[in-house]
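Batch manifest, entry 17 of 40.
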Amino acid sequence: MRQWLGSMARVLLITLLAATAAAQPAAEGPTRANGFVARIDLNGPIGPAAAEYVDDTLQRASRDGAVAIVVQLDTPGGLSDSMRQIIASLLAAKQPVMGYVAPSGARAASAGTYILYACQIAAMAPATHLGAATPVPLGGESPLPVGNVPSPAGTAAKPPTDAEANKVLNDAIASIRSLAQLNGRNADWAEQAVRGAATLTAEEALKQHVIDLIANDTTALLAQADGRHVRVGSNDVTLHVAGLSVRDYAPNWRTRFLGIITHPTIAYMLLLAGMYGLIIEAFHPGALLPGVAGAICLLIGLYALQLLPVNYAGLALMVLGIGLMLTEALMPSVGAIGIGGVIAFVIGSIMLFSSGVPGYAVNLGVIGGIACSAMVLLALLLRLVARSRRARVFNGDSQMMLATGELLQAVPAGGEGWARISGEQWRVHCESALPAGARVRVVGRDGLLLRVTPAG
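Output type: structure tokens
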């Protein structure tokens, strides 16, 4: 009887434990106990380094077991190609992605607006804004409205004047509308942000259903996002993120290095250092260091240029300007060639990168400093050339006519003897008698015979 009671007690205990386990959510328990949220900080212009950083971090966070991803945005915009790479990576992510414009005072302008629309959850901190997503071509001019499509305000748009700009604008509108429709947000305002560069504050964006919520910090964001239903790929997912720890993913060394060399001013300086290093090596063969350093800088600069929106007409003008300044140095003129080279170099430097893309233009102070240095060197060169043309000739008979020396032996009147002149021994002829050691001055030359007179 005692054994039967013990067996029944064990059966009841096992049944009770099984029922308790079945009553608990299978996915929620381990997720809240062991899960974490990965955070990506997109701060600054959107470029190749940012695109690589996002793609690499998404893969690392997925391998580490992140429950969700927070993309914290504070950007003025950037390159269209890099923006599209980031959007493709976000859409392919296996975890829900929450876009968060923060901290207060931050913005998600231009490319940042597209990225925010691509996230399953869009949030903003107070005192932030987004919008101004009109694409800017390389020349810096804004594309015109397309055809006779009514503008968001209801007025007829101007007829198209630039087919290429219209294509870019239409593509951008279709892209952001598709992202808005994918995540169930206001597609009409998204079109206004592209067509008319419209902007919204956080409160206005929430009212117009451009974003999903406003949160003071990441902890508040996770608390408000908890329990929301989002679509990740082809699956519907319920977020369980409240109270989870946040793990920041910093860029790796390669991403940092790429971010440095793809800064337009750094790429510009590398390009110049490479060209001048090779020029110095050409004028001083065997120096090695200028040539090696110049080749390395030039290759790194060219690698950065192929990742950036480069205007090749500007690059050609820079090369022409440097060539003209070298020509002025090798074959000095009145300065016209050198001044033309400085002008071509400055114009090419300004044209090299698109000034319309936020954060992707060479610092004008750097260009001005290099141009002023070139002008100073050119002025010094012209001064040296002018002095050399006015200077007295110091070679041949002209130099000999100014030479003085000392008699090595006595010379009779109208006779000849030997003298040391300019460190050399010469046979001399003098009309007056002079003792040995007397100082004489050259007044003429007949072949290898010098005519001299007393020096004083």
